[in-house]
Amino acid sequence: MALVKTPPTLVRSQPALDDAEVTRIRNDFPVLDQQIHGHPLVYLDSGATSQKPRTVLEAEQDFYEQRNAAVHRGAHELAVRATDAYEDARAAVAGFVGASPEEIVWTSNATEAINLVAYALGTAAIWAERGRGGEAVKDLALRPGDEIVVTELEHHANLIPWQELAFRTGASLRWIPVDDAGRLRMDEAERIIGPKTRVVAFAHASNVLGSVAPVTELVDLAHRAGALTVLDACQSAPHMPLDLAALGVDFAAFSGHKMLAPTGIGALYGRRELLDALPPFLVGGSMITTVTMERAEYLPAPQRFEAGTQRISQAVAFAAAVDYLAQVGPDRIHVWESALGERLAEGIDAIPGVRLLGPAPGTEWHGSPRIGLAAFDVEGVHAHDVGQYLDSAGIAVRVGHHCAQPLHRRLGLTASTRASAYLYTTTDEVDAFLEALGEVRGYFGAAR
């Protein structure tokens, strides 16, 4: 197979990543230096969770060794240091995604972030009816007759919260369909998003197809209708330059564990005026100004949504993760991974009896190349068996419906196998995967 080529639409002024530099990067990740079933580990499951560099591991350890204390509470020096580290981390992550610190709310993960928005929008109607929150909250209230729009390719975390919001408020849930290949039907989007639409929620990049959504077009359609936009950035924040303010979205969610940070930490981005108008999601200590036996008054965002003891060490490590990504360069990472995605797509598509999902090799959907991810179906072999065979060769991939059952159903599948790369993935690892995949049908007697 030919050497990785930089897609022409992604050319940048910085030198491109190459295998030599990626190998050096790979050495920063201790977990990758091991063997699985007697083979060097080839980790192609970064779309599910990324591995962590030493700097991230050390940042969390250092916090516990040097600054561990509750934040925003104590007056002693250690508490001051902990609070500074916590808020510095917020500023670092905000800067990485083109936001202001007060627009970033810490959550456990992206799922919680999306649930926060959906729950708060559901509570807005109750507040409005009972005279809380003023005019701002009235504008956020959903009622019977309103519509929430999602797409047919969403991860369950960006589908089920909206199903539940529709159930609680009496609003209707609608979705933009995909065509037989999985491409969004933008002609249908123009028909569906209209005067009744109050929320449009969609993934920036598909965790199954590797395709990138037409964000500008969807945001324009939503805002012309007066609707809020909610972006699932889980598969974009780790893999491409991201400027949420420039994209014009109202809310966005992303998870730390997919972008070199620990588990248990994620973030919600929201425009400041919207966050300040939303009712809180969780209530308790640390997010109040005044409490009586009858009622409480709440702090503005982001503390408004951060009740209780927070994910302090994880936030500090999250800042170390975005610092690592910034030093490598998000644009360089995007170019490298898009090239790896094309290499995966070409190799998979060339194997008889294997169906590649998403954009065909050499094509772009909605003007964007594939990210470094490819899912596929092996004729005559269940996805779990494919995964087990690859694991026996030391290759870690994802199997199942990838929390996207409606999309798989639309494509005529119950499950697929997914290989996903990251900045530490080499071309040799991709080629090792493709070689092993080419053996699967023969091993299971499915080849004709």
Automatic annotation (TrEMBL):
Gene3D superfamilies: Aspartate Aminotransferase, domain 1 (3.90.1150.10), Type I PLP-dependent aspartate aminotransferase-like (Major domain) (3.40.640.10)
Cofactor: pyridoxal 5'-phosphate
The organism's place on the tree of life at top rank: Bacteria
EC number: 2.8.1.7
Keyword Transferase appears in the UniProt entry: yes
Pfam families to which the protein is assigned, alphabetical: Aminotran_5
Family according to the record: Belongs to the class-V pyridoxal-phosphate-dependent aminotransferase family. Csd subfamily.
NCBIfam families from the UniProt entry: sufS
Name of the protein described by the UniProt record: Cysteine desulfurase
Biological source species: Sinomonas cellulolyticus
Lineage: Bacteria, Bacillati, Actinomycetota, Actinomycetes, Micrococcales
